[in-house]
Design a protein that fits this description.
This protein is mainly beta and 800 residues long. 5% of the residues lie in helices and 55% in strands.
Length: 800
């Protein structure tokens, strides 16, 4: 059945291509609008007279008029902050005319305008969805990855199990982990293989990041219970190159290269993205009586235990690298973009701890790689005006090996085995029986996105996603052990339809949507597949009370289907639970937004309240036994979450930027009685375990251009602080300051200093993280790195 669906989708794609290939007799005009530094200008308005057609430039400043008759035309270009431009042109039959324009800045217009022109980020934030939009340009010179930038955003909390490359849990407004879905340019991140994760991806490749809270627009075709994060990359920029290298504490190296080039005459297009990360992750672990954490090792006379004040992590190396090449064509009459791609990623990871840092490993490794061929196609006009299509397909072929062959059962923080091998148990390893587990993971994705602009007031969107994941495993040491010799399969189909309408001169915007979720899973090739279907729906509305002030509200009845690891485990520290049921939630958001510009002063404020009512809520529990420390997912009867967050921001020209935000939520167990009894649950009314419930950020930047008497250079200082209130690893009624479940409040400060030359072409940044060397903890009380220093060099050019 899944093969038939893929074939039908492929037939539809071929039909689209064939139709477009027939439309070769019309003429067109295309090009780029840039500033005096040859930087593309986004959202410039371009009007073509006398046919009275209007388009807006994209993020790179590109524009295109298609299906034109030969003749004389007048092009008018206008955008806030620049002088208007007008030019006459003559178009011949079947001609593709390339015209690039360079606009001069208009200081008078910048000083007098209030906020008539808005960036793409501002427009998204003022939509009906509860969404944060992070423009990443200000972070491009830092040593941050995607996760470290996202952790500064309102309502977002990212908790990592250690240093570079460690496992992490992502939370939006109290819903975390697999309740959140991740995308790159609208494509599910999981379709790129296990090596692609937000703590690998350098910030340089991102143009902006969108964080949707609770209510997710249908064009992001996936099952998300608590929200979604979409990275919009800077691919397809025409001509660009970005190269960076950084070195820092714990022998950490990070390199990134991204580039794009389109040959003007032929339209041949090449995109390249790659990165390399390595770290020893050899930071100090420390005893911390306030948190009831003690690093104990056997005393020399073996009569008891001594407590170490600190000890370095000793089996924690991490290495990852990725290379991506896309080759195709751009700006053709039958396709705006049509490219074939190939992505390869590789991860080598030494495991230092189990689910908690009380279980210490000394010889457990996990290595994986993925090969991902892909195809993507985009056309802005198909058959009729206003109809556009985007098609994406890829196949991720991943191999993973997880090794546990040590003869020692466990280790201590001094790097020594806890005990000598026991001849009675020759097959015992650190996580159980010795094993070399091999997993073959394959993921196939087909995505179709159709947009139809009926008029300026009415827009329709249809998104279809078909995702098939299979995993085969075996144990090299014990190949006949049926525990691992299984074929697991999960199929997901997501269909979303959205209708957007605008009224009252764009003051009121409403979006109504519905979603279909199809699911089938096979825990074993010898067992029949289990299938189910679910239906979600929602709406999002915004009303602009004034040009500066608006209100927005959104609601979704959301579903989230269990994932492969939750159902079948990961072979290391996660135990599978094939009895998991899909979880669902009614998500409500209500928010206000405000923005005001007075001269060089810019004030903005966003605030929202939210409510989540989740049923069959899936949580992850940590536990230990004689074999080691593990976690396992299970359904809870229900969770209610309510909370609020806000963000205030002030900027003064390009000199000063200051931001503060705070997030609070209260997630409690709402199931009063133990199932099947009239006995009240001890956790009833308690906050959910292992989840920070109050946290905030302060981010201040101070910069000056043309320093030291030189034009085109800039000196920038940034101070960033993050606060996390104390919380408990267990349900709040069961944990207090006297138990190991208690995690104290944390205040982490970071600073960075950047010097840029040649209008940002050459950049050097010095950065200090956790400046005051605070002891901080994250998921299941895993200690985070202490004070660290980094130096980054970056070369960036957007046109050549």
């Amino acid at each position: 059945m899944q093969i038939k669906k893929i074939l039908l989708t492929g037939v539809l794609c071929v039909c689209i291509f064939c139709v477009q290939a027939q439309k070769l007799i019309k003429s067109s005009i295309k090009g780029q609008v840039s500033d005096e530094q040859r930087q593309g200008i986004s959202f410039a308005t371009i009007k073509l007279l006398p046919v009275n057609k209007t388009v807006a430039t994209d993020q790179q400043g590109n524009y295109q008029f298609q299906d034109l008759s030969p003749g004389s035309y007048t092009i008018q270009i206008s955008v806030v902050g620049f002088k208007k431009l007008e030019q006459k042109v003559v178009l011949k039959e079947s001609e593709t005319l390339s015209l690039n324009f360079s606009l001069k800045g208009s200081q008078n217009e910048l000083q007098n305008v209030a906020i008539n022109g808005k960036t793409k980020a501002t427009k998204i934030k003022e939509s009906g969805y509860a969404v944060n939009v992070i423009e990443t340009k200000q972070y491009a010179n830092t040593n941050s990855d995607i996760n470290q930038v996202l952790s500064r955003s309102t309502g977002v909390k990212i908790r990592e199990q250690g240093g570079l490359g460690s496992n992490y849990s992502f939370s939006i407004n109290g819903l975390s982990g697999n309740h959140i879905k991740f995308f790159i340019d609208g494509i599910p991140l999981e379709s790129y293989g296990s090596g692609m994760s937000f703590n690998n991806i350098p910030i340089n490749i991102a143009e902006r990041i969108e964080v949707y809270k609770g209510v997710v627009p249908p064009y992001l075709g996936s099952d998300a219970l608590g929200g979604a994060v979409n990275i919009v990359t800077n691919r397809d920029r025409g001509k660009s190159l970005d190269v960076s290298y950084s070195y820092g504490s714990f022998n950490t190296h990070r390199t990134a290269v991204s580039g794009s080039y389109t040959y003007p005459k032929s339209g041949l297009k090449v995109n390249v993205n790659s990165y390399y990360n390595y770290s020893d992750n050899s930071y100090k672990m420390r005893s911390y009586p306030k948190a009831n954490v003690y690093l104990q090792v056997p005393s020399k006379d073996k009569s008891g235990f001594d407590t170490l004040s600190s000890a370095k992590r000793f089996h924690n190396d991490y290495q990852s690298y990725m290379g991506q090449l896309e080759l195709g064509v751009a700006d053709k009459k039958w396709a705006d973009i049509a490219v074939l791609g190939l992505t390869y990623n590789n991860v080598k990871n030494e495991r230092q701890t189990g689910a908690t840092q009380e279980k210490i490993y000394g010889n457990v490794d996990a290595n994986s790689y993925s090969i991902v061929p892909s195809f993507r196609y985009r056309k802005n006009r198909i058959l009729v005006d206003g109809l556009s299509a985007t098609v994406f397909a890829n196949m991720s072929i991943s191999k993973e090996v997880r090794t546990d062959t040590s003869s020692f059962f466990s280790y201590r923080w001094n790097g020594q085995p806890d005990e000598l091998p026991n001849p009675k148990y020759p097959n015992r390893g650190e996580m159980g029986n010795k094993s070399i587990l091999h997993y073959n993971n394959n993921n196939a994705l087909v995505q179709l996105n159709l947009n139809y602009q009926l008029s300026d007031q009415h827009l329709f969107n249809l998104n279809y996603n078909l995702n098939t994941t299979t995993r085969e495993g075996y144990d090299e040491i014990d190949p006949y052990n049926q525990t691992y010799n299984k074929t697991n399969r999960v199929n997901k189909t997501v269909l979303g339809l959205n209708y957007q309408q605008t009224f009252f001169n764009n003051k009121l915007t409403n979006s109504f949507f519905g979603k279909y979720f199809g699911f089938s899973g096979r825990p074993d090739s010898n067992k029949p597949a289990e299938t189910a279907a679910y239906y979600g729906y929602g709406l999002a509305s915004t009303y602009k009370i004034t040009e500066e002030l608006g209100i927005k509200a959104s609601y979704e009845h959301a579903y989230r289907l269990p994932g492969m690891v939750e159902l079948f485990g990961n072979g290391l520290d996660v135990i599978g639970n094939s009895e998991l049921k899909p979880e669902n939630s009614d998500n409500f958001n209500l928010g206000l937004f405000f923005g005001k510009t007075i001269g060089k002063h810019r004030f903005s404020a966003d605030g929202s309240v939210f409510y989540r009512n989740a049923k069959d809520y899936i949580i992850s529990r940590a536990y230990s036994n004689s074999q080691g420390a593990y976690s396992e997912s299970a359904n809870e009867g229900g969770i209610k979450i309510k909370g609020a967050d806000f963000e205030l921001k002030y900027t003064y020209g390009d000199l000063l930027s200051a931001l503060v935000n705070m997030s609070y939520y209260d997630a409690v167990d709402r199931e009063k009685y133990v199932q099947g009894t009239n006995r009240e649950k001890i956790t009833y009314g308690s906050r959910t375990p292992n989840e920070p419930w109050l946290y905030g950020n302060t981010d201040v930047s101070l910069g000056k251009s043309n320093v030291f008497g030189k034009k085109g250079n800039r000196l920038q200082f940034n101070w960033y602080m993050q606060f996390v209130n104390d919380y408990s690893l267990s349900w709040s009624k069961l944990g207090d300051e006297k138990t190991k479940d208690y995690i104290p409040a944390q205040w982490i400060q970071n600073i960075a200093l950047t010097y840029s030359l040649k209008n940002g072409r050459y950049n050097i940044t010095g950065e200090a993280r956790n400046l005051t060397d605070q002891i901080a903890y994250d998921v299941f009380k895993q200690q985070k790195p202490g004070r660290a220093f980094f130096l980054k060099l970056r070369y960036n050019i957007n046109s050549f």
